[in-house]
Amino acid sequence: MHSQLSPGQSQPDPSGRRPPLMRNQIRGFWASWGGWTLDGMDSFIYALVLVPSLRDLLPGSGIAATKENIGCYGGLLFALFLLGWGLAFVWGPIGDKFGRVRTLMLTILRYSTFTLLSAFVLKVWQLAILRLLAGIGIGGEWAMGGTFVAEEWPESWRLRGAGYMHTGYSVGFLLAALANLSIGSHRGWRQMFLFGGLPALLLAWIRYGVAEPAR
Questions:
Q1: Angle, helices 189-196/100-117, rounded to nearest 10 degrees
Q2: 103 with 88: CB under 8 angstroms?
Q3: Ramachandran region, residue 3 (left: φ > 0; alpha: ψ -120 to 50; beta: rest)
Q4: Which end of the chain is less enclosed by CB atoms within 10 A, N or C?
Q5: How far apart are CA 109 and CA 121, in angstroms?
């Protein structure tokens, strides 16, 4: 009895070698890796601009910009960001209903938009809300990208694919550090948040030529 392969899956090699990855598997992996890389960049951008942004925003919110207040409100905003990441479970049913690729696009659009809007806030509570909303998008991108690789890549490649994808977050830290060196140190924290909105440019690339996993 012969087993049937789903569309996009490679025929197993009887010699035990890994089958070559197909176009959709490769393109979809780079879309997922790129999204996860820019997740890491977005997350680290806030850490880099925390002090200068709160120095500007706290007085406008009626709060003295003391060391203690910067530490307190900075930690609170980080906590809200992580809460948003935890709320990213809402993307699971959306991904099941509308597909991994489309939902991946929505998560990237979400965190890119709310990061970009952070460049225009005037009060600390406005930044807090935007960090919460961006966290929901960032957590969802990781879930959708990881699920895409797990479902689309052949069994013999799956563990490697998961490992390769997770290298992206550290690359994102490097990109954020380079951006802070070239942009943040000269143009300020608002320009860093504008730069953090760039992941939305990935949307056209993801939409073009990446099909849903057959599984």
A1: 170
A2: no
A3: beta
A4: N
A5: 19
As a whole number of Å, the CA-based R_g of the chain is: 20
Residue 13 CA, chain-centre distance (Å), reads 35
* Buried/exposed code over 37-70 (b: 16+ C-beta within 10 A; e: otherwise): bbbbbbbbbbebbbeebbeebbeeeebebeeeeb
User: If 0-12 CB within 10 Å is exposed, 13-18 middle and 19+ buried, where does residue 198 land?
Assistant: middle
- Torsion angle of the four alpha carbons 8, 138, 82, 62, in this order, in degrees rounded to the nearest 10: -170
Q: What is the pLDDT of residues 112-170, one digit of tens each?
A: 899 999 999 999 999 999 999 999 988 888 788 888 888 888 888 888 888 898 898 99
Q: How far apart are CA 168 and CA 170, in angstroms?
A: 5
Q: How many CB atoms lie within 10 A of CB 170?
A: 11
